[in-house]
Each structure stands twice: as C-alpha cells, then as structure tokens.
Write a structure and sequence with these properties.
The protein has about 350 residues and is an alpha/beta fold. The protein has helices spanning about 15-25, 65-70, 85-90, 95-115, 145-165, 190-200, 220-230, 250-265, 285-295, 300-315, 320-325, 340-345, and strands at about 5-10, 30-35, 55-60, 75-80, 120, 170-175, 180, 205-210, 215, 220, 240-245, 250, 270. Helix 5 links the parallel strand 5 (about 120) and strand 6 (about 170-175).
Length: about 350
C-alpha cells in the first residue's frame, strides 16, 4: 500500500519522533492531521513548517473518545505515537496507564469505526526490560521494568487483537532509543543525548546515573521515521510486531566519550546513584525488519551524534535558562500517587 497523497492522522505528532514523521509524510504529498495534547510535545516542534493548507493541528486528549472520533473523519492511515513517558510512570502510574493503555484502545476504536485502512502502533523497546538474551528478537520474553513498559506492551496486544478480529488492519513498530535534532532536553522530558551535548558544549560535567555500563540500541530519528513509513506500506507486516533498530548496543559511558570527542570538549564524566527501575541492557534484533522491507537502520552512532550536535549548536542558545532546565532526578517532577507514598513508608 502506497503511503502517499492521502489524509493521515498522527497522534503525538507534535512530539520528537512525531514531528519528524509529520515532516516525512508531508514530503510524500499527504494531508496530515496532528492530534496532540501538547503535554510531551509542543506546537513549536512544527513551527519550521509554517502555515500550510495540508497540515491541521488538533489539540486533544486520546482519553476523549468523542474528540478522536471527530478527528478520524476522512482519514486513510493512522500513526499512533501519543504516549506518556517512562519517567512519569515511576510516580504517576495511573495516569500513564490511562493514556498509554486506555488511550490506545480509544484510538483503535475510533480508527476502526471511521473505516481507516491501516494503523501503525508505535510501541517501545521498554516492553522487554533488561536483556538476558541478545540480540533481542520481537518474541523475547517480556519483563517490563515500569508501568510505562507494561502499558506499551498492553497496547501491542490490543493492536494485534484488533487485527486478528478483522476490526482494523494494524502493524506494530517497536523503535529503540531514538535520538537526533529536536530531541527533548528540558525537565522531566529530557533525554540523555541532548543533555550530554548541551553539558559538553558548555564545559559542564557529563552526569551518568549508575555505573554507565547500561546499554541502549540508539537509532537516528530520521531513519526511524523512514522505517515507520515503509512498515505502514508493507502488506507482509500486517499483524506483526517489528523492531526498528540498528542492532548495535552502546553503553552510556561510551556515549559520553563519543560526545566529548565530537564536541572537542574535555568535560568530566561523573557518576551518580542509579535511577529507579532502570533497564540495564537493550540490544535489538533487526532481522524481521530486514526480511520485511529489505534493510535496517544503518547510520552509525558517530554520524548520528555529529548531526545531532550540529543541530543543537545551531538551534539551541546556551542561555542560563536552558542550562537550568537540565536538572537531574527528572522522575521527581511530579508528586507520587498517595498509595506509593504509603508503600514507601511501610518499606522504610
């Protein structure tokens, strides 16, 4: 199926991956509807596109079935990327469940009811937990470490049930650790690579939680959206779960070293106490992706980081406010749910 010249809805389209996906879909001649509550994303992520007749922004919450039903009118394809993140799930698991699990069910129902031709559900490598067997295939035994990971796994099952029941053709993509231009760096949404880049550019220490031996399978965001488009158009991918990854693990300590070298800075690398429920090893297997579409992401970590660093040099002013936004312990930006506080007190 050709993903061109149609009306496509992207939930979470004002987020990091979502905004890059919107760029790609517009270049392919599509009319794009972005449905986003701007909690994780921001309309500013799409400012570079300007005002255009083929882009429609709808501020809405995927927990609101009526708003979703209205947004789906005339839509041919749906990319479902809207989510609450892993750090929030450490203190607000109920909210993360409601958005990631119930919200996903709502999106699937709205798409099926509207006669959408195909939906791609964007899951997460966090469904796996810490790897015991590497590289991790799609049917790796699931042991999510967080409510976020568990909620994304529930979404995978829901998407598969809708497909098997004949209600809606679906494919599930499982991206691994995306990075690149426009990645979140501030506050609770901030990710490790842009934080390291901004700290290095200002000569500040690069702060690592735990030993730094934790590994991730980093994938450059522009490649990820390329494969999301290709999977949506691949008939053989229907009903499947597909890793979108390079198939190479990089430790957080190695990542810090790369960024120091590429920025030409000598920032100290310091270690802090480990994060709660941190996944210690991620290393995906792209074999199924290669079988389905003929290739897998190939941009090296060095090349991807170089592009990312240049974007941050050009687009993010190194002001006091920007540096202040790189605060640590990003899972503590929200008060924990009361039951969690009582549980911690009993445990103490």
């Amino acid at each position: 199926m050709d993903v061109r010249n149609g009306r496509i809805l992207v939930t979470g389209g004002a987020g990091f991956i979502g905004s890059h996906l919107v760029d790609r879909l517009l270049r392919l001649g599509n009319e794009v509807v972005v449905f986003d509550d701007y909690t994780s994303g921001s309309p500013a992520q799409l400012d570079h596109l300007g005002a255009r007749a083929d882009l429609h922004l709808i501020e809405g919450d995927i927990r609101d079935q009526a708003s979703l039903d209205k947004a789906m009118r005339g839509v041919r394809h749906v990319y479902h990327l809207a989510t609450r993140n892993v750090r929030l799930s450490l203190v607000q698991p109920t909210l993360v469940h409601e958005v990631n699990t119930t919200g996903t069910l709502n999106v699937l129902k709205a798409a099926a009811s509207a006669g959408v031709r195909r939906l791609l559900y964007c899951s997460s490598s966090e469904v796996n937990g810490t790897a015991d067997i590497v590289p991790m295939p799609e049917d790796y035994p699931y042991r999510p470490e967080t409510i976020y990971g568990a909620s994304k796994l529930a979404g995978e099952y829901y998407a598969q049930v809708f497909h098997r029941s004949g209600w809606l053709p679906t494919v599930t993509a499982r991206p691994h650790n995306n990075y690149g231009p426009r990645e979140h760096f501030a506050g609770q949404k901030g990710e490790v690579i842009p934080r390291f880049v901004l700290w290095a550019l200002t000569g500040q220490p690069l702060r690592i939680y735990g030993s730094g031996e934790q590994t991730r399978d980093f994938t450059f965001v522009e490649e990820t959206v390329d494969y999301l488009v290709r999977l949506m158009g691949c008939d053989e991918a229907l009903g499947e779960v597909v890793n979108v990854c390079r198939g190479q693990e990089v430790s957080i300590f190695e990542l810090a070293q790369h960024i120091r070298e590429l920025t030409g800075r000598k920032s100290e690398i310091v270690r802090l106490p480990g994060r709660p429920s941190d996944v210690l090893r991620l290393f995906g297997d792209p074999t199924r992706l290669t079988r389905l579409v003929g290739s897998a992401p190939s941009i090296s970590i060095e090349e991807g980081l170089s592009r990312t660093i240049e974007w941050f040099r050009s687009h993010v002013p190194l002001t006091r406010d920007v540096l202040a936004s790189l605060e640590m312990n990003t899972w503590n930006h929200h008060a924990p749910e009361p039951w969690m506080d009582r549980t911690h007190k009993r445990a103490g």
